[in-house]
Amino acid sequence: MSELAAHVGLASVLALWFALVWRARSALRQPRLRGLWLTVLAATTAITLFQPRIVGRLASAGIDVHSVSLVRNLIGVLSAGLVLLFVIDPSRTPRLRRYVAVGMTAALVSLLVLDLLQVDQASAGTASAQRPASASSAYWLILIGSHLAGDAVAVVVCWAYSLRTTERDLVWSLRLFAAGSVLALVFWSGYLFHLYDPAPPLLPYLSVIMGVHGFLRAASLLVPTAGALARSAGALRTIWRLWPLWRDLVTAVPHVALARPRRTRLLEVLRPRHPLAMQAHRQTIETYDALLTLQQYVRPDAYERAHRYARRAGVREDRLASAALAAAVDEARRAVLAGVPPSDPHPLPGVTHGSPETLLGIARMWPAMTGVLPRPDRTSPARPR
Question: pTM of this prediction?
Answer without folding.
Answer: 0.76
